[in-house]
Design brief:
By secondary structure, this protein is of the alpha/beta class. The chain folds into two domains: about 10-250 and about 455-475, Aldehyde Dehydrogenase, Chain A, domain 1 (3-Layer(aba) Sandwich), CATH 3.40.605; about 255-440, Aldehyde Dehydrogenase, Chain A, domain 2, CATH 3.40.309. About 40% of the residues lie in helices and about 20% in strands. It is built from 15 helices and 22 strands. Strand 10, helix 8 and strand 11 (about 245-250) form a beta-alpha-beta unit.
Protein backbone atom coordinates (compact mmCIF):
# COMPACT_ATOMS: atom_id res chain seq x y z
CA UNK A 1 0.00 0.00 0.00
CA UNK A 2 1.48 3.32 -1.10
CA UNK A 3 2.44 5.66 1.76
CA UNK A 4 3.16 8.75 -0.36
CA UNK A 5 1.58 10.26 -3.45
CA UNK A 6 2.76 13.08 -5.71
CA UNK A 7 -0.40 13.35 -7.84
CA UNK A 8 -4.11 13.99 -7.30
CA UNK A 9 -6.98 11.88 -8.61
CA UNK A 10 -9.15 14.17 -10.73
CA UNK A 11 -11.94 12.85 -12.92
CA UNK A 12 -10.51 9.34 -12.92
CA UNK A 13 -6.95 10.38 -13.86
CA UNK A 14 -3.78 10.89 -11.85
CA UNK A 15 -2.70 14.46 -12.51
CA UNK A 16 -0.07 16.88 -11.30
CA UNK A 17 -1.45 19.26 -8.64
CA UNK A 18 -1.87 22.90 -9.60
CA UNK A 19 0.15 24.06 -6.58
CA UNK A 20 3.28 22.96 -4.78
CA UNK A 21 1.94 22.65 -1.22
CA UNK A 22 2.46 19.24 0.39
CA UNK A 23 0.72 17.55 3.33
CA UNK A 24 3.08 15.69 5.66
CA UNK A 25 1.44 13.07 7.85
CA UNK A 26 3.20 12.24 11.12
CA UNK A 27 2.25 9.41 13.44
CA UNK A 28 0.24 10.58 16.45
CA UNK A 29 1.92 7.74 18.36
CA UNK A 30 5.57 8.76 18.02
CA UNK A 31 5.80 11.62 15.52
CA UNK A 32 7.48 9.57 12.78
CA UNK A 33 6.76 10.47 9.16
CA UNK A 34 4.00 8.29 7.71
CA UNK A 35 3.99 9.81 4.22
CA UNK A 36 3.11 12.78 2.06
CA UNK A 37 0.47 13.86 -0.45
CA UNK A 38 -0.23 16.99 -2.47
CA UNK A 39 -2.47 19.61 -0.86
CA UNK A 40 -5.28 20.34 -3.31
CA UNK A 41 -5.82 23.98 -4.21
CA UNK A 42 -8.85 25.89 -5.52
CA UNK A 43 -7.48 25.38 -9.04
CA UNK A 44 -7.60 21.61 -8.47
CA UNK A 45 -11.18 22.00 -7.26
CA UNK A 46 -12.04 23.82 -10.48
CA UNK A 47 -10.61 20.95 -12.52
CA UNK A 48 -12.44 18.30 -10.48
CA UNK A 49 -15.77 20.13 -10.65
CA UNK A 50 -15.39 20.68 -14.40
CA UNK A 51 -14.75 16.96 -14.90
CA UNK A 52 -17.69 16.01 -12.67
CA UNK A 53 -19.97 18.53 -14.34
CA UNK A 54 -19.09 17.27 -17.82
CA UNK A 55 -19.56 13.65 -16.76
CA UNK A 56 -22.93 14.38 -15.19
CA UNK A 57 -24.29 16.66 -17.91
CA UNK A 58 -23.03 14.74 -20.94
CA UNK A 59 -21.39 11.47 -19.85
CA UNK A 60 -22.74 7.92 -19.64
CA UNK A 61 -22.86 7.45 -15.86
CA UNK A 62 -26.23 9.10 -15.03
CA UNK A 63 -27.72 7.62 -18.22
CA UNK A 64 -26.74 4.02 -17.54
CA UNK A 65 -29.38 1.57 -16.45
CA UNK A 66 -29.34 1.42 -12.62
CA UNK A 67 -28.31 -2.24 -12.85
CA UNK A 68 -25.18 -1.29 -14.79
CA UNK A 69 -24.15 1.25 -12.15
CA UNK A 70 -24.75 -1.37 -9.48
CA UNK A 71 -22.33 -3.74 -11.24
CA UNK A 72 -19.54 -1.14 -11.22
CA UNK A 73 -20.15 -0.26 -7.57
CA UNK A 74 -20.22 -3.96 -6.69
CA UNK A 75 -16.86 -4.39 -8.44
CA UNK A 76 -15.44 -1.51 -6.40
CA UNK A 77 -16.90 -3.10 -3.24
CA UNK A 78 -15.16 -6.39 -4.03
CA UNK A 79 -11.75 -4.77 -4.54
CA UNK A 80 -12.11 -2.55 -1.47
CA UNK A 81 -13.06 -5.48 0.74
CA UNK A 82 -10.11 -7.54 -0.54
CA UNK A 83 -7.75 -4.79 0.66
CA UNK A 84 -9.47 -4.27 4.01
CA UNK A 85 -6.58 -5.24 6.27
CA UNK A 86 -4.03 -3.12 4.38
CA UNK A 87 -6.33 -0.11 4.45
CA UNK A 88 -7.01 -0.56 8.17
CA UNK A 89 -3.29 -0.55 8.94
CA UNK A 90 -2.78 2.58 6.82
CA UNK A 91 -5.58 4.48 8.57
CA UNK A 92 -4.19 3.50 11.98
CA UNK A 93 -0.78 4.91 11.05
CA UNK A 94 -2.36 8.24 10.10
CA UNK A 95 -4.96 8.91 12.81
CA UNK A 96 -4.00 6.74 15.80
CA UNK A 97 -7.17 4.64 15.82
CA UNK A 98 -6.33 1.21 17.26
CA UNK A 99 -5.88 -1.37 14.54
CA UNK A 100 -8.50 -3.53 16.23
CA UNK A 101 -11.01 -0.74 15.52
CA UNK A 102 -9.90 0.07 11.97
CA UNK A 103 -9.81 -3.66 11.24
CA UNK A 104 -13.39 -4.03 12.44
CA UNK A 105 -14.51 -1.04 10.38
CA UNK A 106 -12.87 -2.24 7.18
CA UNK A 107 -13.62 -5.95 7.51
CA UNK A 108 -17.18 -5.80 8.85
CA UNK A 109 -18.84 -2.38 9.11
CA UNK A 110 -17.95 -0.91 5.72
CA UNK A 111 -18.70 -4.10 3.74
CA UNK A 112 -22.15 -4.39 5.33
CA UNK A 113 -22.76 -0.65 4.89
CA UNK A 114 -22.05 -0.91 1.14
CA UNK A 115 -23.98 -4.17 0.80
CA UNK A 116 -27.03 -2.53 2.38
CA UNK A 117 -26.84 0.31 -0.15
CA UNK A 118 -26.57 -2.18 -3.01
CA UNK A 119 -29.66 -4.03 -1.73
CA UNK A 120 -31.55 -0.75 -1.48
CA UNK A 121 -30.61 0.19 -5.05
CA UNK A 122 -31.67 -3.21 -6.36
CA UNK A 123 -35.08 -2.87 -4.73
CA UNK A 124 -35.74 0.76 -5.64
CA UNK A 125 -38.30 1.63 -8.33
CA UNK A 126 -36.49 4.29 -10.33
CA UNK A 127 -39.66 4.98 -12.29
CA UNK A 128 -43.19 4.06 -11.28
CA UNK A 129 -46.78 4.80 -12.24
CA UNK A 130 -48.79 7.03 -9.96
CA UNK A 131 -52.38 6.12 -9.02
CA UNK A 132 -53.48 9.17 -11.05
CA UNK A 133 -51.90 7.73 -14.17
CA UNK A 134 -48.78 9.93 -14.23
CA UNK A 135 -45.17 8.89 -13.65
CA UNK A 136 -42.82 9.35 -10.72
CA UNK A 137 -39.15 9.31 -11.67
CA UNK A 138 -36.16 9.18 -9.34
CA UNK A 139 -33.11 10.88 -10.80
CA UNK A 140 -29.60 11.74 -9.58
CA UNK A 141 -29.24 15.03 -7.71
CA UNK A 142 -26.13 16.01 -9.71
CA UNK A 143 -22.53 16.79 -8.77
CA UNK A 144 -21.85 15.92 -5.12
CA UNK A 145 -19.13 17.37 -2.90
CA UNK A 146 -18.44 14.87 -0.08
CA UNK A 147 -16.43 16.39 2.77
CA UNK A 148 -15.26 13.94 5.41
CA UNK A 149 -13.39 13.88 8.75
CA UNK A 150 -10.33 11.93 9.88
CA UNK A 151 -11.72 9.63 12.57
CA UNK A 152 -13.18 6.90 10.30
CA UNK A 153 -12.22 8.14 6.84
CA UNK A 154 -13.27 5.25 4.59
CA UNK A 155 -16.52 4.67 6.43
CA UNK A 156 -17.32 8.39 6.23
CA UNK A 157 -16.36 8.52 2.55
CA UNK A 158 -18.23 5.45 1.37
CA UNK A 159 -21.39 6.19 3.34
CA UNK A 160 -21.67 9.15 0.93
CA UNK A 161 -19.96 8.06 -2.27
CA UNK A 162 -21.66 4.69 -2.62
CA UNK A 163 -25.27 5.97 -2.56
CA UNK A 164 -24.34 9.00 -4.66
CA UNK A 165 -22.78 6.77 -7.32
CA UNK A 166 -25.65 4.28 -7.25
CA UNK A 167 -28.06 7.15 -7.85
CA UNK A 168 -26.06 8.30 -10.90
CA UNK A 169 -24.29 11.30 -9.34
CA UNK A 170 -20.70 12.30 -9.97
CA UNK A 171 -18.62 12.97 -6.85
CA UNK A 172 -15.67 14.94 -5.52
CA UNK A 173 -14.31 13.58 -2.23
CA UNK A 174 -12.57 16.22 -0.11
CA UNK A 175 -10.47 14.31 2.41
CA UNK A 176 -9.11 15.60 5.71
CA UNK A 177 -5.46 16.74 5.87
CA UNK A 178 -5.00 14.39 8.86
CA UNK A 179 -5.77 11.33 6.72
CA UNK A 180 -4.90 12.17 3.10
CA UNK A 181 -2.88 9.07 2.25
CA UNK A 182 -5.70 6.57 2.70
CA UNK A 183 -7.98 8.81 0.62
CA UNK A 184 -5.66 8.53 -2.37
CA UNK A 185 -5.33 4.79 -1.73
CA UNK A 186 -9.13 4.77 -2.01
CA UNK A 187 -8.77 6.59 -5.34
CA UNK A 188 -6.57 3.73 -6.58
CA UNK A 189 -9.46 1.37 -5.92
CA UNK A 190 -11.93 3.62 -7.76
CA UNK A 191 -9.53 3.62 -10.72
CA UNK A 192 -9.29 -0.18 -10.64
CA UNK A 193 -13.08 -0.59 -10.48
CA UNK A 194 -13.49 1.16 -13.83
CA UNK A 195 -15.76 4.16 -13.28
CA UNK A 196 -16.21 6.32 -16.40
CA UNK A 197 -14.14 9.45 -16.89
CA UNK A 198 -15.07 12.37 -14.67
CA UNK A 199 -17.22 10.42 -12.22
CA UNK A 200 -14.86 10.36 -9.19
CA UNK A 201 -12.23 12.80 -7.92
CA UNK A 202 -10.31 12.71 -4.61
CA UNK A 203 -8.77 15.88 -3.16
CA UNK A 204 -6.95 16.01 0.21
CA UNK A 205 -7.03 19.58 1.55
CA UNK A 206 -7.73 21.86 4.47
CA UNK A 207 -10.53 24.27 5.35
CA UNK A 208 -9.91 26.97 2.74
CA UNK A 209 -10.12 24.50 -0.15
CA UNK A 210 -13.15 22.89 1.47
CA UNK A 211 -15.03 26.18 1.54
CA UNK A 212 -14.12 26.86 -2.07
CA UNK A 213 -15.51 23.46 -3.07
CA UNK A 214 -18.68 23.84 -1.00
CA UNK A 215 -19.47 27.24 -2.53
CA UNK A 216 -18.54 26.23 -6.08
CA UNK A 217 -21.40 26.96 -8.50
CA UNK A 218 -20.83 23.64 -10.27
CA UNK A 219 -21.70 21.63 -7.15
CA UNK A 220 -25.35 20.60 -6.65
CA UNK A 221 -25.19 18.86 -3.26
CA UNK A 222 -22.94 18.88 -0.22
CA UNK A 223 -22.60 15.81 2.01
CA UNK A 224 -20.62 16.49 5.18
CA UNK A 225 -19.54 14.68 8.32
CA UNK A 226 -17.82 16.70 11.04
CA UNK A 227 -18.32 19.15 13.84
CA UNK A 228 -21.53 21.02 14.47
CA UNK A 229 -19.69 24.34 14.17
CA UNK A 230 -18.43 23.43 10.70
CA UNK A 231 -21.88 22.08 9.82
CA UNK A 232 -23.47 25.41 10.63
CA UNK A 233 -21.00 27.16 8.35
CA UNK A 234 -21.67 24.70 5.53
CA UNK A 235 -25.44 25.00 5.97
CA UNK A 236 -25.19 28.78 5.68
CA UNK A 237 -23.23 28.49 2.43
CA UNK A 238 -25.64 25.87 1.09
CA UNK A 239 -28.61 28.05 1.99
CA UNK A 240 -27.13 31.06 0.24
CA UNK A 241 -26.68 29.03 -2.96
CA UNK A 242 -29.78 26.82 -2.51
CA UNK A 243 -27.66 23.67 -2.68
CA UNK A 244 -28.95 20.38 -1.37
CA UNK A 245 -27.18 19.44 1.85
CA UNK A 246 -26.90 16.57 4.30
CA UNK A 247 -24.96 16.97 7.55
CA UNK A 248 -23.88 14.30 10.04
CA UNK A 249 -22.60 16.31 12.98
CA UNK A 250 -21.65 16.14 16.65
CA UNK A 251 -23.20 14.32 19.57
CA UNK A 252 -23.33 13.99 23.34
CA UNK A 253 -25.19 10.71 23.49
CA UNK A 254 -26.76 9.32 26.65
CA UNK A 255 -26.75 5.72 27.83
CA UNK A 256 -29.70 5.16 30.19
CA UNK A 257 -29.06 2.34 32.68
CA UNK A 258 -32.30 1.19 34.28
CA UNK A 259 -32.15 -0.30 37.76
CA UNK A 260 -32.69 -3.90 36.57
CA UNK A 261 -29.75 -3.83 34.13
CA UNK A 262 -26.87 -6.33 34.33
CA UNK A 263 -23.97 -4.05 35.20
CA UNK A 264 -21.28 -6.45 33.98
CA UNK A 265 -22.95 -6.44 30.56
CA UNK A 266 -23.38 -2.66 30.74
CA UNK A 267 -19.69 -2.07 31.45
CA UNK A 268 -18.61 -4.39 28.66
CA UNK A 269 -21.06 -2.82 26.21
CA UNK A 270 -20.09 0.74 27.09
CA UNK A 271 -16.44 -0.14 26.62
CA UNK A 272 -17.25 -0.19 22.90
CA UNK A 273 -20.25 2.17 22.63
CA UNK A 274 -18.57 4.88 24.70
CA UNK A 275 -14.84 4.48 24.13
CA UNK A 276 -14.19 2.68 20.84
CA UNK A 277 -11.98 4.52 18.34
CA UNK A 278 -10.41 6.47 21.25
CA UNK A 279 -13.91 7.94 21.79
CA UNK A 280 -13.20 10.14 18.76
CA UNK A 281 -16.65 9.12 17.66
CA UNK A 282 -19.62 11.41 17.12
CA UNK A 283 -22.18 8.94 18.48
CA UNK A 284 -20.14 7.82 21.51
CA UNK A 285 -22.27 7.27 24.64
CA UNK A 286 -20.38 9.72 26.85
CA UNK A 287 -23.22 10.69 29.24
CA UNK A 288 -23.97 7.70 31.45
CA UNK A 289 -27.33 8.06 33.22
CA UNK A 290 -27.50 5.88 36.33
CA UNK A 291 -30.37 5.28 38.83
CA UNK A 292 -29.70 6.80 42.24
CA UNK A 293 -30.31 3.50 44.03
CA UNK A 294 -27.48 1.84 42.05
CA UNK A 295 -25.37 4.89 41.31
CA UNK A 296 -22.16 3.85 43.07
CA UNK A 297 -22.42 0.33 41.64
CA UNK A 298 -22.51 1.82 38.13
CA UNK A 299 -19.59 4.12 38.89
CA UNK A 300 -17.47 1.28 40.23
CA UNK A 301 -18.32 -1.02 37.31
CA UNK A 302 -17.24 1.67 34.86
CA UNK A 303 -14.12 2.45 36.89
CA UNK A 304 -13.06 -1.20 36.77
CA UNK A 305 -13.69 -1.37 33.03
CA UNK A 306 -11.78 1.85 32.24
CA UNK A 307 -8.80 0.95 34.41
CA UNK A 308 -8.53 -2.35 32.54
CA UNK A 309 -8.17 -0.72 29.12
CA UNK A 310 -4.87 -1.13 27.29
CA UNK A 311 -3.55 2.31 26.32
CA UNK A 312 -0.66 2.60 23.91
CA UNK A 313 0.66 1.89 20.41
CA UNK A 314 -2.37 1.73 18.08
CA UNK A 315 -0.64 -0.78 15.81
CA UNK A 316 -0.66 -3.33 18.66
CA UNK A 317 -3.79 -5.53 18.34
CA UNK A 318 -4.10 -5.57 22.15
CA UNK A 319 -4.44 -1.76 22.37
CA UNK A 320 -7.91 -0.35 23.04
CA UNK A 321 -7.08 3.36 23.46
CA UNK A 322 -4.53 4.94 21.16
CA UNK A 323 -3.38 8.56 20.84
CA UNK A 324 -5.53 11.52 19.91
CA UNK A 325 -5.15 12.45 16.26
CA UNK A 326 -3.08 15.61 16.83
CA UNK A 327 -1.58 17.78 19.55
CA UNK A 328 -4.49 20.23 19.50
CA UNK A 329 -7.00 17.45 20.09
CA UNK A 330 -4.91 16.05 22.93
CA UNK A 331 -4.82 19.47 24.58
CA UNK A 332 -8.56 19.96 24.02
CA UNK A 333 -9.40 16.70 25.83
CA UNK A 334 -6.97 17.41 28.69
CA UNK A 335 -8.47 20.89 29.11
CA UNK A 336 -11.95 19.38 29.46
CA UNK A 337 -10.66 17.04 32.17
CA UNK A 338 -9.25 20.06 34.00
CA UNK A 339 -12.58 21.83 33.49
CA UNK A 340 -14.49 18.91 35.01
CA UNK A 341 -12.36 19.11 38.14
CA UNK A 342 -12.93 22.88 38.30
CA UNK A 343 -16.71 22.38 37.89
CA UNK A 344 -16.73 20.19 41.00
CA UNK A 345 -17.24 16.78 39.45
CA UNK A 346 -15.63 13.83 41.26
CA UNK A 347 -12.62 12.46 39.37
CA UNK A 348 -13.02 8.69 39.71
CA UNK A 349 -10.15 7.59 37.48
CA UNK A 350 -7.87 9.12 34.88
CA UNK A 351 -6.94 12.78 34.94
CA UNK A 352 -5.31 15.48 32.83
CA UNK A 353 -1.77 14.08 33.00
CA UNK A 354 -0.29 12.32 29.97
CA UNK A 355 -0.03 8.55 30.62
CA UNK A 356 3.40 7.61 31.91
CA UNK A 357 5.72 6.30 29.21
CA UNK A 358 3.61 7.72 26.37
CA UNK A 359 4.83 11.31 26.45
CA UNK A 360 6.10 11.04 22.87
CA UNK A 361 2.58 10.79 21.45
CA UNK A 362 -0.75 12.59 21.73
CA UNK A 363 -2.12 10.44 24.56
CA UNK A 364 -4.65 11.18 27.28
CA UNK A 365 -5.78 9.07 30.19
CA UNK A 366 -9.24 7.51 29.82
CA UNK A 367 -11.18 9.44 32.44
CA UNK A 368 -14.38 8.95 34.43
CA UNK A 369 -16.26 11.66 36.33
CA UNK A 370 -19.03 11.04 38.88
CA UNK A 371 -21.37 13.42 40.74
CA UNK A 372 -22.00 15.23 37.47
CA UNK A 373 -24.92 17.55 36.88
CA UNK A 374 -26.29 17.74 33.36
CA UNK A 375 -25.75 21.51 33.35
CA UNK A 376 -21.96 21.14 33.60
CA UNK A 377 -20.00 21.82 30.44
CA UNK A 378 -18.42 18.36 30.56
CA UNK A 379 -21.99 16.99 30.31
CA UNK A 380 -23.14 19.34 27.54
CA UNK A 381 -20.22 19.85 25.16
CA UNK A 382 -18.75 17.29 22.80
CA UNK A 383 -15.25 16.45 24.02
CA UNK A 384 -14.37 13.88 21.31
CA UNK A 385 -12.07 11.92 23.54
CA UNK A 386 -12.18 9.22 26.26
CA UNK A 387 -13.98 11.18 28.98
CA UNK A 388 -17.20 9.77 30.47
CA UNK A 389 -19.56 11.41 32.95
CA UNK A 390 -22.05 9.63 35.19
CA UNK A 391 -25.28 11.54 35.93
CA UNK A 392 -27.85 10.30 38.49
CA UNK A 393 -31.59 10.09 37.78
CA UNK A 394 -34.64 9.46 39.98
CA UNK A 395 -36.98 7.48 37.70
CA UNK A 396 -37.62 6.77 34.01
CA UNK A 397 -39.25 10.15 33.41
CA UNK A 398 -36.23 11.88 34.93
CA UNK A 399 -33.86 9.79 32.81
CA UNK A 400 -35.71 10.68 29.62
CA UNK A 401 -35.76 14.35 30.61
CA UNK A 402 -32.00 14.41 31.20
CA UNK A 403 -31.27 12.47 27.99
CA UNK A 404 -33.36 14.95 25.99
CA UNK A 405 -31.85 17.98 27.75
CA UNK A 406 -29.10 18.36 25.19
CA UNK A 407 -28.35 20.41 22.11
CA UNK A 408 -27.54 17.13 20.37
CA UNK A 409 -29.50 14.07 19.33
CA UNK A 410 -27.34 11.57 17.43
CA UNK A 411 -26.95 8.31 19.35
CA UNK A 412 -27.69 6.66 22.67
CA UNK A 413 -28.70 3.48 24.40
CA UNK A 414 -30.99 1.94 27.00
CA UNK A 415 -30.04 -0.96 29.27
CA UNK A 416 -32.61 -3.16 31.03
CA UNK A 417 -33.39 -6.80 31.75
CA UNK A 418 -36.85 -6.08 30.31
CA UNK A 419 -36.52 -5.45 26.57
CA UNK A 420 -40.03 -4.04 26.19
CA UNK A 421 -39.41 -1.62 29.04
CA UNK A 422 -36.18 -0.49 27.40
CA UNK A 423 -38.00 -0.05 24.08
CA UNK A 424 -40.62 2.14 25.71
CA UNK A 425 -37.88 4.38 27.11
CA UNK A 426 -36.04 4.41 23.76
CA UNK A 427 -39.17 5.61 21.96
CA UNK A 428 -39.22 8.73 24.17
CA UNK A 429 -35.63 9.85 23.60
CA UNK A 430 -35.14 12.47 20.86
CA UNK A 431 -32.15 11.05 19.07
CA UNK A 432 -31.44 9.44 15.72
CA UNK A 433 -30.14 6.05 16.88
CA UNK A 434 -30.93 4.13 20.08
CA UNK A 435 -29.34 0.76 20.91
CA UNK A 436 -31.15 -1.49 23.37
CA UNK A 437 -28.80 -3.66 25.43
CA UNK A 438 -25.86 -3.29 23.04
CA UNK A 439 -27.81 -4.27 19.94
CA UNK A 440 -25.89 -3.95 16.64
CA UNK A 441 -26.48 -0.89 14.47
CA UNK A 442 -28.99 -1.79 11.72
CA UNK A 443 -27.11 -0.85 8.54
CA UNK A 444 -30.30 -0.80 6.47
CA UNK A 445 -31.97 1.67 8.83
CA UNK A 446 -31.40 5.44 8.60
CA UNK A 447 -28.66 7.03 10.68
CA UNK A 448 -28.43 10.73 11.47
CA UNK A 449 -29.21 13.34 14.05
CA UNK A 450 -31.95 15.37 15.64
CA UNK A 451 -31.32 19.00 16.66
CA UNK A 452 -27.70 20.15 16.34
CA UNK A 453 -26.56 16.66 15.37
CA UNK A 454 -27.42 17.16 11.74
CA UNK A 455 -29.73 17.27 8.76
CA UNK A 456 -30.64 14.24 6.67
CA UNK A 457 -29.87 10.55 7.08
CA UNK A 458 -27.36 7.94 5.91
CA UNK A 459 -27.49 4.13 5.44
CA UNK A 460 -29.82 1.95 3.43
CA UNK A 461 -32.77 3.07 1.33
CA UNK A 462 -33.25 6.36 3.20
CA UNK A 463 -29.56 7.22 2.76
CA UNK A 464 -29.78 6.44 -0.95
CA UNK A 465 -32.74 8.80 -1.18
CA UNK A 466 -30.54 11.71 -0.07
CA UNK A 467 -28.92 11.68 -3.54
CA UNK A 468 -32.15 11.55 -5.53
CA UNK A 469 -34.39 14.23 -7.01
CA UNK A 470 -38.04 13.38 -7.62
CA UNK A 471 -39.71 14.24 -10.92
CA UNK A 472 -43.43 13.97 -11.59
CA UNK A 473 -44.63 13.61 -15.18
CA UNK A 474 -48.31 14.03 -15.91
CA UNK A 475 -49.53 11.78 -18.70
Amino acid sequence: MTSSFDKLFIGGHWVEPAGSEVIEVHSPHDGSLVGTTPHASPADVDAAVAAAREAFDHGPWPRMAPEERQKVVARFHEVHTARASELATLVTSENGSPVAVTGGLHNYVIPEQTAAYLRAAENLQWEEKLPSGGLLRREAVGVVAAVIPWNAPHQSALVKLVPALLAGCTVILKASPETPIDSLALAEIFAEAGFPEGVVSVLPAGRETSEYLIAHPGVDKIAFTGSTAAGRRIASIAGEHLKRVSLELGGKSAAIILEDADLDAVAQGLKFNSLANNAENCQAHTRILAPRNRYEEVVQALKTMIEGLAVGDPSDPATFIGPMVRAGQQQRVRSYIELGIEEGARLVTGGPEVPEGLEGGFYVKPTLFADVDNSMRIAREEIFGPVLVVIPFDDEDDAVRIANDSDYGLGGGVWSADTERALNVARRVRTGLLLVNDAPVPMDGPFGGFKASGIGREFGAVGLGQYIEYKTIGV
